Amino acid sequence: MPAASSFAIDVPDRLLRRAREGERAALEQLCRWFERPVFTLALRLTGDRDEAQDVLQETMLKAIAKLGEFRGDAPFWGWLRQIAVNEALMQLRRRRRLDESLDDDGFEPVDASPPPSAAADAAALWRALEKLPAATRAVLWLYHAEGHTHEEIAGLMQRTPSFSKSQLARGGRRLRALLEPQSEHATEVQHA
User: Fold this and answer.
1) Which residue of 84, 85, 146, 186 pairs with 59 in a disulfide if CB–CB is 3.0 to 4.6 A?
2) 10 Å Cβ neighbour count for 58?
3) Which UniProt key words apply to this protein (predicted)?
4) Ordered domains of the chain (ranges, CATH)
């Protein structure tokens, strides 16, 4: 099961009821409340602002269309986040970005350790993530940030669990390599 999000907006039942009834003001309010977190998630997965904007629009349209399916037995953000993740991955597939830079030659042992300590600097981490292939970045994000298992990632990305494991291992190595020069440079600057 995906990790619980630290982001939470309490959506009143009354607002959800009004939105399900098609009240425009209620639908607009839901969209405004969740616009930023959906866009941020989409940006993390796609690495592209235009694609993230497309994902945001598709997510909101799909959520409005499927609002009657939301049972309310889990937080609204969890339900909406899953729609956003699916839309982001579909966006990547549509753009054929998943296959562009993959050289999947088989399973490699998984290194499921979290990113290196240099990743504490969120800006440096994001710059490094942007340099990774889209599929690798998506696997890293889904595994570490969203808390999905390899089996869940495989299902979401229409791949095998070994694909998820190999991308996580490769992505972790690439991410560390991208972050290490920055931490060495920072150490040199501190000692200068």
Assistant:
1) 84
2) 19
3) Sigma factor, Transcription, Transcription regulation
4) 13-95 (1.10.1740.10), 101-191 (1.10.10.10)
Tens of pLDDT, residue by residue over 54-94, are 999 999 999 999 998 888 878 888 899 989 998 988 888 77
DSSP letters for 33-73: HHHHHHHHHHHHHH--HHHHHHHHHHHHHHHHHTGGG--SS
Secondary structure of 85-112 in HEC code, one letter for each residue: HHHHHHHHHHCCHHHHCCCCCCCCCCCC
Q: What's the token pair of residue 149? A: 């298992």
Question: What value does the mean pLDDT take over residues 94-101?
Answer: 56
The CA distance from 97 to 157, in Å, is 12
Query: What is the value of pTM for the model shown?
Result: 0.61
Q: CB–CB of 139/167 below 8 Å?
A: yes
CB 180 within 8 A of CB 118: yes
